[in-house]
């Protein structure tokens, strides 16, 4: 029986690359996305192992039923908590509502999805959860206070989950991507040459990463090659977080 995975926010960017990596290696992967056309098109591009799930993760009360439907009485072997949103604004201009919106999507939905998936994994005595953090949790970045707070929480949750869930055979790890070539980063950096130069100058490897670099790291954590690894946070950033 093939393994079963869930990738949240898997219809574009890092999530898409991750879902493709899993599917290409024979893992049936449920891609959760809010936008019907984008999610279905992504699955069609990836191939028959990709199954679209049109769902808004902000609807916390509906998450248990959604996960139950995906599990179908079988195990869920892999969960990749990739979905998240950002918000750029000066610290003093961020409203309570804006801050809470980031927390709701980036923390509460990760908790709720993980909780329901773990209920399934516990019964089967195995499973791997991979949370996606950010360089914003590794050091201070301006104008992203809510996003930074949410990703710091993800890394702390990773360690807490790993300790509590190890007894059930469930491993929990985290990846903190650096600057990766996506449409979003291209748009941000190509319009700001000074910032792009700063990014590359403090990255020892001198280049930006590819989405496949994140997908490869997820794949390592997801399968038995990392069988004795839990509670870790892996920066995949070309050395950016330790660069000077």
UniProtKB/TrEMBL annotation:
SUPFAM superfamilies linked to this entry? NAD(P)-binding Rossmann-fold domains
Look up and give the organism this protein is from: Urechidicola croceus
Assigned protein family: Belongs to the short-chain dehydrogenases/reductases (SDR) family.
One Pfam family it belongs to: adh_short_C2
Q: Which UniProt keywords apply?
A: Oxidoreductase
Q: Cite the GO molecular-function annotations of the record.
A: oxidoreductase activity, acting on the CH-OH group of donors, NAD or NADP as acceptor
Question: Hey, what's the signal peptide range on this chain?
Answer: none
Which Gene3D superfamilies does the record associate with it?
A: NAD(P)-binding Rossmann-like Domain
Query: What PROSITE patterns has UniProt attached to this entry?
Result: ADH_SHORT
Q: What is this protein called?
A: 3-oxoacyl-ACP reductase
């Amino acid at each position: 029986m093939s393994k079963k995975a869930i990738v949240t926010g898997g219809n574009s960017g890092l999530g898409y690359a991750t879902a493709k990596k899993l599917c290409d290696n024979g893992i049936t992967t449920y891609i959760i996305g809010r936008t019907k056309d984008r999610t279905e098109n992504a699955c069609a591009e990836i191939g028959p192992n990709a199954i679209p799930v049109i769902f808004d993760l902000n609807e916390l009360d509906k998450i248990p039923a959604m996960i139950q439907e995906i599990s179908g009485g079988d195990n869920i072997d892999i969960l990749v908590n990739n979905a998240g949103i950002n918000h750029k604004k000066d610290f003093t201009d961020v409203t309570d509502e804006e801050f809470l919106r980031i927390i709701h999507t980036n923390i509460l939905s990760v908790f709720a999805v993980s909780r329901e998936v773990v209920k399934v994994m516990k019964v089967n005595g195995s499973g791997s959860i991979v949370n996606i953090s950010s360089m914003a949790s590794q050091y201070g970045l301006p104008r992203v206070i809510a996003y930074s707070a949410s990703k710091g929480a993800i890394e702390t949750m990773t360690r807490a989950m790993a300790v509590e869930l190890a007894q059930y055979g469930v491993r929990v790890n985290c990846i903190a991507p650096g600057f990766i070539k996506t449409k979003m980063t291209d748009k941000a950096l190509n319009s700001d040459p000074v910032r792009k130069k700063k990014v590359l100058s403090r990255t020892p490897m001198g280049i930006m990463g590819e989405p496949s670099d994140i997908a490869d790291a997820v794949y390592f954590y997801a399968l038995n090659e990392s069988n004795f690894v839990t509670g870790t946070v892996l920066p995949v950033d070309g050395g950016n977080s330790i660069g000077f």
